[in-house]
Amino acid sequence: MLLNLKPLNSFTIATMLGFSLLIFFCYILFNFPSATTSQIPIPKSQSQSQLQTPPQSDPFKNLLGAFKKWDLEVGCANFKQKHVGLVKRDVKLSSLQVGVGVGEDQCGELKMDHVGVLVKGWTWIPDNLDNLYSCRCGLSCLWTKSSVMVDKPDAVFFETTTPPFRRRTGDPLRVYMDLEAGRKKSGFEDIFISYHAKDDVQSTYAGGLFHNNRNYHLSPSKNNDTLVYWSSSRCLPQRNQLAKRILSLLPHHSFGKCLNNMGGLDMALSLYPECAKDPNASPQWWDHLHCAMSHYKFVLAIENTYTESYVTEKLFYALDSGAVPIYFGAPNVMDFVPPHSIIDGTKFKSMEELADYVKALANDPVAYAEYHAWRRCGVLGNYGLTRAASLDTLPCRLCEAVSRRGGRDATGF
User: Which long-range contacts (C-beta less than 8 Å, at least 24 apart) are formed by 274-283?
Assistant: First the structure.
């Protein structure tokens, strides 16, 4: 039997349709993520480095223990992948003269197979650099301060002494070096050496030969209460002011003449007697420098002058000691150091922000160990090139430059 259904009025239809849409909307809302938000928004105060507000504070003293935690949570494979572009670098940086593959294809430019360099006058270059070197392309290089060893040098090396005003054909080439921030040619040299890549020969401060007689004992235990090491005995106003600002926010030991808070010079040996080079000799601050630094998680390194490519031993001492440098200096410093190895103080908005970061990092063994991963995983990056352009390799690189010019046979006046 057919039912006689009454037609539905428009009000009833609208009510049923609205109810259906409400059910569908609730289903979508409670079963699917929002289509307008791709990730959970993070409050601005937490959107910066996690180290500034770490979820758990884990103060540590044992560096090797921190390394083990990092190995378990991160590991070298992940670190290498993160810095994959630096594992094998095949380009030449504008900040460094030495690059992969550079030099071997230039053997044909050499005009001499042996070069003798005589170092003249007073210079800070150590005597232990004197040697007979076997260089690339079969070139031998004699570097010496003795005129007896090389009575007819192909080049004469000057640093603090001005080279001769005139050079005649048959005279040795004049080499002048200035590694100070305001490097300046003498005006009388044939070859100019400085820390900058655009000069004739570059010499970075990353070498080890000029301080190879120090106590390099490194402590596996890091101070947890006193975080920062600083030592400076040249109290420049600008550097002192900067150091005072940051050190006022961090627990530290200052051993030099500037802002000393240890009661005198050479007090590091009172704290760390194992750092004495020779117990029977009068202590010198440079003898125990690296060993003392190694007891601290951080070393403050401030250059005398903020100049492009002027990256001095202040930074490399800290790296050699196994500490993390807090650095203020050259704007292109990252061209000279390993990946993730230093804290560039200029990248922070304020000293307070920098201090908060350092304190948090000191209480996070995994994050702190990440700053040491480059040396443990063999990811040197630019640092390999920096060492290759250092004072350690200067004799061979200078001898190559002299050979390319022909040494004493180069045209003079």
Answer: 274/217, 275/215, 275/217, 276/215, 277/213, 277/214, 277/215
- Residue 224 binned pLDDT confidence (cut-offs 50, 70, 90): very high
Could you give the 3-state DSSP secondary structure of residue 221? strand
Distance CA(89)–CA(99), nearest Å, equals 8
CB 370 within 8 A of CB 80: no
Give the fold, CATH level 3, of 208-382: Rossmann fold (3.40.50)
Mean pLDDT to the nearest integer, 296-314: 96
Give the C-alpha separation, 330 to 314, whole Å.
Answer: 12
Q: Could you give the C-alpha distances from 312 to 179, 301, 337, in angstroms and in order?
A: 9, 9, 11
Give the span between the Cα atoms of 333 and 318, in whole angstroms: 14
Give the C-alpha distances (Å, rounded to integers) separating 28 from 16, 39, 41.
Answer: 19, 18, 21
User: Cα–Cα distance between 271 and 221 in angstroms, integer?
Assistant: 13
Distance in angstroms (rounded) separating the CA atoms of residues 63 and 52 = 21
Phi, psi (rounded to 5 degrees) for 140: -105, 145
**Span between the terminal Cα atoms of the chain, in Å:** 128
Strand locations in 269-382 (E): 298-302, 324-328, 343-344
Question: Which residues touch 48 (CB under 8 Å, ≥6 apart)?
Answer: none
H or E element that contains 140: strand 140-144
- Alpha-carbon distances, residue 4 vs 1, 7, 8 (angstroms): 9, 10, 12
Lowest mean pLDDT across 57-71, 93-107, 240-254, 280-294: 93-107
Domain boundaries, the chain: 109-203+391-409, 208-382
Q: What is the per-residue pLDDT across 236-276, written as a single tens digit (0 to 9) for each?
A: 999 999 999 999 999 999 999 999 999 887 789 889 999 98
Contact predicate 338/382, CB 8 Å: yes
DSSP 365: H
H-run or E-run covering 158: strand 155-158
Q: What's the mean pLDDT in 196-210? A: 92
Ramachandran category for residue 137: left, alpha or beta (phi over 0 → left; psi -120 to 50 → alpha) = left
Examine the pLDDT at 91 and tell me if it is beyond 60: no
CB 201 within 8 A of CB 390: no
Confidence at residue 207, expressed as pLDDT on a 0 to 100 scale? 87
| Structure-block tokens of residue 61 | 């003293």
